[in-house]
Amino acid sequence: MFIVTVSYTAPLDEVNQWRPAHGEWLTDLVARQLLLVAGRRPEWVGGVYLVPGMPSEKIDRLLATDPYLLNGVAEHQVVEFTPLLVAPGLEELKALG
User: Fold this and answer.
1) Cα dist. 7→25, 45, 58 in Å?
2) Helices and strands, number each (H, E), in the chain
3) In whole angstroms, what is the distance from residue 74 CA to residue 7 CA?
4) pLDDT tens digits, 23-57
5) Cβ–Cβ under 8 Å, residues 63 and 80
6) d(CA 36, CA 52)
7) 3-state SS of the chain: helix, strand, coil percent to 5?
8) Cβ atoms within 10 A of the Cβ of 43, count?
9) Taking Cα atoms as reference points, which of 54, 60, 19, 55 lies closest to residue 36?
10) Which residues, at least 6 apart from 42, have a Cβ–Cβ distance to it below 8 Å?
11) Is residue 78 within a helix (H) or strand (E), and if so which, with residue range?
12) Please, where are the H alpha helices in 1-97?
């Protein structure tokens, strides 16, 4: 499983130009369960994604299609981890790691 943080590298007015395309990109990936969770970081500095386990090459290819990245207004940081302890009711997350 991966946690991906997104950090804006351009002023918000530039980021906002690509927000609709980025939102469509996120909606599609969540619908296909290639992203499990996507959300905004406080103070409009970027976002965070929870991504199920997959080969690192696949996540690299997936993130490379982000309109924010394609247009040079954000960067991604990827952390891989193995879920070992989960809250009751979220046991399925272990299988996705």
Assistant:
1) 17, 6, 21
2) 4, 4
3) 5
4) 999 999 999 999 999 999 999 999 999 999 999 99
5) no
6) 7
7) 40, 25, 35
8) 6
9) 54
10) none
11) strand 74-80
12) 12-31, 56-63, 67-70, 92-96
Q: ∠ CA(88), CA(27), CA(75), 5° rounding?
A: 90
Which are the contacts of 64, defined by CB distance < 8 A and separation ≥ 6?
A: 70
Two tokens, residue 90: 């979220």
Q: Report residue 56 CA to chain centroid gap.
A: 14
For the stretch 5-18, pLDDT in tens is 999 999 999 999 99
pTM above 0.70?
Answer: yes
